[in-house]
Structures are given as C-alpha cells and as structure tokens.
Amino acid sequence: MVTVLCIYICRGSSPTNKCVQIEKQALLMLKDGFFYGTDILSSWNGDDCCGWKGISCNNFTGHVTRFDLPQYSKYTAHYDLTFLADTIPTETTYNPRALGGYIYSSICKLHHLTFLDLNYNDLIGEIPECIGSLGELVELKLAWNNLDGSAPQTLANLSNLKNLDLGYNYKLEVNDLEWLPHLSNLRYLDLSRVYLSSVIDWPSSIGKTPSLLELYLNDCGLSQINAKSISHVNASTSLQVLSLSRNTLNSSILPWVLNFSKAVIVLDLSENEIDDSIIKSFQNLCQLKELYLGLNKLSGQLNDYLPEMCFAQHDLEVLDLEHNPFNSGLFPDFSWFSSLKRLSLKNTSIVGPLPFGHLPQLKALDLSLNHLNGSLPIFEVTKFASLHFLDLSYNQLSGTLSYTIGQLSKLWFLSVASNRLNGIVSEAHLISLSKLKILDLSENSLSFNLNANWVPPFQLLYFLSSSCILGPQFPTWLIYQKKLLVLQISNTSIVDSIPKWFGDISSSLSYLNVSHNKLSGVLPSIKTGLMSKWDFSFNNLSGPLPPFSPDVSSLFLSNNIFSGSVSSICAMSQRFLIYLDLSSNLLTGPLPNCWGNFEYLTVLNLANNSLSGRIPNSFGNLDHIQSIHLNNNNFSGEIPSLPGHNMLTLIDFGDNILEGTIPTLFSGLIVLRLRGNKIQGVIPTSICAIESLQVLDLSSNNITGEIPQCLSYIRALSDIEFPKDIFFRWIYEAIIFDPIQIGIFVDETSLIWKGESQEYGKILGLMSMIDLSGNHLTGEIPQCITKLKALIALNLSRNNLTGFIPDNIGDMKMLESLDLSGNHLDGRMPASFSNLNFLSYMNLSFNNLSGEIPLSTQLQSFEASTYIGNTGLCGPPLANQCPGDKNGRVGEKGTHKFLDIGFYISLGLGFCVGFWGVCGTLILKTSWRHAYFQFFNNINDWLCVTVVVFTNKIKRRFQIKN
After folding, report:
1. Alpha-carbon torsion, ordered 72, 75, 80, 84, to 10 deg
2. Who's near 738: CB < 8 A, 6+ residues apart?
3. What family classification does the UniProt entry report for this protein (predicted)?
4. Cβ contact 858:866 at 8 Å
5. Residue 268: how many CB atoms within 10 A of its CB?
6. Which of 891, 792, 804, 888 is nearest to 844 (CA)?
C-alpha cells in the first residue's frame, strides 16, 4: 500500500508542460495594451506561455508566478557619493526598445503571481485598481515609467509584499499613505519622484510599518514635519536605510529621524535645507555608517563638526558634506576615522595645502571645487593602499604631477583637472595603474612624454587632457584603448594627420573631441557608440564631407577646409542627428532637399561657406528645429515657409542675396537676423506679436514703409523683468559624466554693436537690440519706441526718416548704443537725452538737428564727429558756440542761463544760511561767543609759543656748530 501510494503521489505531482489557459489569455490581452517595443514579446506565441520571454510558472501547477520584463540601458553616471565605489558603476536609462503602452487589468487574472517587474519601460496610464487582488505578490516593481494618476488604495491588500518600487514615475501621485501600515511584511519601499506633497501625516504612516528596512522618498515634495506631532509617532525600530534627499526639508525633520537612531545605518538628507542645528544630533546616531548631507545649509567651520562625530570614530564609512556654505578653513584631520572608506568635501571652501593622515581603508576621496593650493602632495602608498577614487579637480594646486600617484595601484578614477600643474607626464606616472578607467588631466600645463611604442597597462573608459600637450604627433598609445567611451584631446598641440587605425579605436566611443588642433588630411571612417558626439572643429581637415556613422547625434566640423557639395548628407541615416555644424568651411553648391528626413534636428549651422541656390522647402518639415544659421553664403530666392512651432528661437539668414518679403514668424522666436539681403516690402505687424523677440536685425535691405507703431508690444524689449534666454542647448549623450561638460552647445551670431561687427555666443541671450539701418524707411520715429525700456541698442541709421526725435527718448534708460545718423531728422535734441546714463555710443550725424546740445555727462563726452552734418547744433563738445554764449550756456530768449532768477535766489539763500548760521548764533548766545573768541586766543598763544621754542632750538644748534 505504501509503494502504491508513493507511485500515485509521484505521478500526480509530475511537472505539467503547459500554463493555465485562462492565464495565457490574460497575458495575450496584456500584450494588446503595448503599442511599441513589442519585438521584446516576439516569443509570446504558441500554447505554452511558460516558455515565453519574461514568464515563469510553477512546475507542478502551471500557474504563472513571475512576470519579469525590466528594460535596462547602461550608462555611466556621477550623481553623488554613491558613484565613488570600488569599480566604475552603471546606472540605467530609457531603452529605445522598451515596452510602451498601458497595463491592462487583465494582469489581475494572474492570481498566483509572486514577482512582477516592469521597471525601466515606457508604460503610461494608471496602475490598475485591481492590482490589490494579487494577494501572493512578494515583489512589485513598476519604477522608471511614465505612469500617472493615483496609486491605488488596494495596495493595502498585498499583505505578503516585501518589495514595492514605484519610484521615478514623475506623473504618479499618492494622496495618502494609510494603506502602508497594512503591508506588515514590507521590507523595501521606493517612492522617489512620486508626488507626495498632498500627504499630510506621512511620518505617522511610515512609523507604523513594522518590518520596513529600506525607505527611499527622494524628491517627493514632502511637507514639513509638525514638531508637536512627532512625540505621537511610533517609529519602526527596524529601519536601516533612510533616504529623503531633494525635498527642501528643514531641521524640523531631525527629531523624527532620531526615532530611528538605534537601527539606521544609512542616512541621506542631501539637497534639503538642513542647517547647523543638526550638529547636536550626531551623538544620537549610534549605528550610522553612511551619512549624506550634501547641498544643505551647513555653515560655520568644518572642523567644528568632527568632535561631535566622535561616536563614529570606528564605524563611519561614508561621509558626504559637499556643496555646503562652510566658512573657509584648513583641511580637517580625518585620520582618527579609522573605518572611513568614502569622503566627499567637494565645494566646501577648504583652503591651504593638502596634508594627509593615515587612512588605510579610504577608497574614495573628492576634494574638488575648493581652494587647495601649493604643490600636489606626495602620496604615501601605505597610507592610501585602498584608494580607488581621487578627485582634486578645480583647485589651485601647482607644481609637477607626483610620481607616487602612479603607485596607487587600485585607482580606477583620477582627476586633477583645472589646476596649475606643469611638467612632464611620463610612463613612470602611469605604469602601475593597471585598473585605471577614468583619467582627467585637462586644463593644466602638463606635457606628455610617452614612448611611441609604449603599451599602457590599463583600458581607459574616459581620457581627458584638453589644454595639455600631447603633440606634435598623434598619440600612438591610444591604439590600445579599445573600450573608450569618452576621448577629449582638444587643444593639445597635435600637428599631424588622423591615423587610419583611429577609426577602429573603440566601437563604444560616445564622445570624441579633437578640436582646436592642427589636424590635416581626410577623416577616416570611425566606429562609434549610440547617440555619440563628434567634434573635429578648428582644424585643417580637408577633402569632401566624409561618411558618418548613423549613430552620431552631434557633429561639429566647423572651421576646417572641407570643400565640395553637401549633398552627401542625405546618405546619412538621420535617425539620431540633433546638432549639425558645418560652418566656416569651403562648401559650395545648392542644398539638397532632404531635410524633412532629419526628424530630430535641433541646431543647423551652415554659415560662412559658399553655398548657393534656393533654401529648400523641406526646411519647413524640421519639426524639432530650434536654431538655423545660413548666414554669409550666396543663397538666393525667397525665404520658404519655416516650421510652424514655438521651438524655433533663432533664425540667421544674414549676408546672402535673398529676396521677397519677411516671412510669417512664430511666437517663440528670440533672434531674427536677415541683415544684408535684398528683402523688400514693409515690416509686418505680425512681428509685434512675438513677445520673446530680443534681437531684430533687418539692416541693409530694401525695406520700405514706416516703422510699426506696435513695436512696444514686444515684451522682451519693453519689460525689463522679462526673462532672458541664455541660448544653452543641452546635448543628450549616452554617457553623462559630471566633471566634464560635454553636453552644452552655445548659439552664436554676429551683431553690429556700437558701430562694429562682433560675435556673440554665451551672452547672446542677454542682448536686446533693434537694427533697421540701411533701408528705405520713411515717416517719423514713432513715439511708442520710447516704451522699449529693456532695449540696449537701437540703430535706425541710413534711412529716410523725418520729423523730430521723440521727446521721451530718455525713458529708454537701458540704452547703451544709439545710432540715428544719415536721416532727415530735424528740431532740437530732447532734454531727456540727459537721462540716458548708460549711453556709451551715439551717432546723430548727417541730419538736420538744430539748437543746443543738452547738458549731460554722456553727451559732452562724445567726440564732435557724433554730431557732424547737423549745421544747426551748437554747444560742447562742438567748437561752435550757441548765439550769445560767452561764459555759459544761452537760454532760449537770449538771457544768460547761469544768471536767471533761480541763480539770484540761490545766492541770497546761501548768504543768509552761511552768514547768519554762524554770526547770528555768536550774537545771540553769550557763552558761545566767549568760547569762540577764547578759541582764537588759545590758537594765537599756541602759535607764539611754538615759534619761540622753534627759534631757540635753531639758535642753540648754530651756537654748538660755531
């Protein structure tokens, strides 16, 4: 009977081969909710859903127990001190192949599901309310999606849940946390970047969750804690990791945090508003091993904090105090923190030399962005045997690079960028750094002296050496670096051609900058990583435009000598191209009509070439374009219709031979430059509707008509408080790394400023100007133009304007440059000119102005040429005096301006106040009169005695000599 029973049990419990049919149908319905990225689900066919990708089943029942389809795309990050690890860390970001769509409620039919992970996808919509019916769930991970709505209250039913991760769903919100205490088995909770500002008593709900070990509520908009309610909160005694960064919490949070002090090991309060009162709380954090307090309001002396942390002398492993406004002070002595592994004092106002104590377990040290000076210290290997990460960048260290750095054999990160180091970098500095991954020596005066046949012992991921000397030959040791992600060797004195082997240097290269050298010849075909940036600008590269990898997103080839047609650009795969800069080359011929294929193109710069023909109509299909530079070419014909969206902020078609009228423009425009063409017609009033317009340059065209009265409607020119655009474009990179700024593009254009042509880049967004010079404008200068109070440059010269200069021109108090020359203006210069205190350039020459020049510090400081050609003007700085002017200015009726009634009144008042203020008191006040004359008697006596004594001294000296 026992044998028969065993056989029955074994046969009855044998594994099934197929999943439950109703669960299979539920999965197929769920698949229908995904509208892209479904190639991931290509295996979702056939009868047995247990074999589908991401699905796991119970071997005996066939029920689906795991749904595991997270999408990860690795890139290197540098957010905070968590980056300072033993090896280079990786983070995750959006994967173009991720699942996109909705989570249908059919998922709730998987009643036996214990593990659900859809992290790092592109899911939208709300979390199904029925999710609470999955009572066997142990882990629920829906982080890094685009889920919205409110987190369902039914989460309270998931009593078996141990791990809940809903973080980084930016549109998701939680209205209350009353469901949280019901999750009695919950160990891990991450609601980072989920909107929690509506939750009033969030500390109470968290404190009632008994088994919670790790809590992450970063950047949730948490409300401040009411100090009176803290005493009623029962804190979880098991909480070990508490992370509340980026919530603008103040020090009122500290008493609540101290409720967890007996168990908490990791505490992250960075990027809040914690002040110095926290120093009194350190003694209570008994078990603390990691403390993150960066980007708060800690002040005072850094040395004052260390004695309060004596409790952690043998326990503290990580300390992050970066970006706090400490008072300047010397580098503290951390040598008595015997367990310290990671230390960041970045941007904490440390000054002076850099002494080091004995820190045998220290793995990561970040002292960047301080005021450390003197020579780079000699590292004693025995004191830093475990050092993996060293950042001393952005200080004032000088001298040579110490050879002892090369003996820190465990280093994978080394940055001494932006200091004052000089001398030689030889093989001895690098020979023992076999684990080196990131090397940043940029912005120093270091000179590399490496053997041409040298084989490095390391495989770098990042190499940055801009402004050092690598040349004159192209560094041959780079041939062995097959894993490079970032290569920054701009301005390194290389005078050579790019070797052919460079094209195979690394298939994952995502940032390449060899600009500002003297590289010549042609570009080889170069492998590259996804969404990469290439910068070959400011060299001597020649030949036709080379073929480019389809994965390039940003391409800078400006200031070379490339020649020929640009039609080859159409052969590129345009899927990722965002920035294209081919300016200042020798390119010729017409533009191809394929621009509609560049779906994500943001900045196009073809300026300063010899391109010709018509501007293609396909420019109107650039759906994401923000900036177009076609200036200084030979384009002809009319300006085509441009994209009809508010993203277009800069148009520079200046210095071509374009005809037609000014095109229809859109509300987001900031710079419009059509200078030096043959554009006709009038200035359309539609320009006045562009509130953001800061620079309007229509000079040197054939524009007719009057200046529009509505220019005062342009808010960027009339409202001083209107926000200015700084014209920085952030370049998306597959690799983002904090110490190097590889993601910035700055728009540039040429403007006539104070009579001279100047290039404007970083400060272009701070300019506000109107230049309508060199046209055929008629009529008067409209009075409304004086309402442009934010305008700093106005040029209306070389037109046919008549009438008077507006009386209220002095209301434009921000004006620094004014040019009204070469018109037919008459009348007097308005007295309000005296209010233009910032005016540093003015030209009113060759008009019909008359009368006296108003008195002003600025107006009299200009040269006489400013007013030349106005025969009726008189007074300084002109040599011709106004009629009747002898000692002063002449008034309108011929009376002396200095001797009018006001002058005599002032004279009388001055005499009365001066004479009777002194003499009257002496007459009326007897004691003052006696004191006054007694004072002069004393002075007289003192002078007499002094003269007599001095005379006797002189006589005695002569008697002694005789």
Report:
1. 110
2. 78, 79
3. Belongs to the RLP family.
4. no
5. 24
6. 804
Q: Which of 276, 159, 175, 268 is nearest to 219 (CA)?
A: 268
Mean pLDDT over the full length of the chain: 83
Give me Rg for the CA atoms of the chain: 38
User: Token pair of 936, please?
Assistant: 């002069």
Question: Are the C-beta atoms of residues 867 and 847 closer than 8 Å to each other?
Answer: no
Q: Which of 607, 600, 654, 605 is nearest to 625 (CA)?
A: 600
d(CA 836, CA 811): 8
Q: Report the alpha-carbon distance of residue 498 to residue 488 in Å, rounded.
A: 15
Tokens matching residue 533 = 């940036």
CB 731 within 8 A of CB 743: yes
Predicted confidence (pLDDT) per residue in 466-482, tens digit: 999 998 999 999 999 98
Other C-beta atoms lying within 10 Å of the C-beta of residue 479: 15
Strand order in the sheet with 100-102: 34-36, 100-102, 122-125, 146-150, 171-173
The neighbour count for residue 360, using CB atoms within 10 Å, is 14
Q: What is the DSSP string of 528-571?
A: --TTEEEE--SSEEEESPPP--TTEEEEE--SSEEEE-SGGGGG
**Rounded distance, CA 793 to CA 779, Å?**
21
DSSP H/E element including 749: strand 749-753
Answer whether 0.85 is exceeded by the pTM. no
Residue 40 half-sphere exposure toward CB, CA atoms < 13 A? 21
CA-wise closest residue to 439 among 475, 408, 464: 464
How confident is residue 137, by pLDDT bands cut at 50, 70 and 90?
A: very high
Burial class for 703, CB neighbours closer than 10 Å (0-12, 13-18, 19+): buried
- Give alpha helix (H) positions in 313-457: 427-430
Strands 115-117 and 64-68: parallel
pLDDT digits (tens, 9 = 90+) for 64-105: 999 998 886 544 443 444 445 555 655 444 455 688 999 999
With a CB cutoff of 8 Å and minimum separation 6, the contacts of 544 are: 562, 563, 564, 565, 568
What the chain holds in terms of domains, given with CATH numbers, is 11-173 (3.80.10.10), 176-352 (3.80.10.10), 355-437 (3.80.10.10), 667-680+697-899 (3.80.10.10)
Secondary structure (3-state) at 167:
coil
Higher-pLDDT residue of 756 and 7 is 756
CB 392 within 8 A of CB 739: no
- Residue in this structure with the two tokens 């005809």, named with its chain if needed: 659
> Is the bond leading into 708 cis (omega within 30 degrees of zero)?
no
Query: What is the rounded CA–CA span in Å between residue 486 and residue 533?
Result: 10
The token pair that represents 92 in the structure block: 């995750």
Q: Once rounded to an integer, what is the mean pLDDT over residues 247-254?
A: 86
- Give the number of other CB atoms < 10 A from CB of residue 136: 16
CB proximity list for 338: less than 8 A, separation 6 or greater = 313, 314, 360, 361
Write a three-state SS string for 622-641.
Answer: CCCCCEEECCCCEEEEECCC
- Could you read off the pLDDT of 350-361 as tens digits, one per residue? 888 877 667 788
Task: Give the chain's end-to-end CA distance (angstroms, integer).
Answer: 152
Report residue 581 CA to chain centroid gap.
21
pLDDT in tens, 537-568: 999 999 998 877 777 888 999 999 999 999 88
The string of pLDDT tens digits covering residues 763-781 is 677 788 999 999 999 999 9
- DSSP strands (E only) in 28-77: 34-36, 55-57, 64-68, 73-75
Query: How far is it, in rounded angstroms, from Cα 572 to Cα 574?
Result: 6
Residues 63 and 21: their CA atoms lie apart, in Å, by: 9
**Token digits for 651?**
């148009």
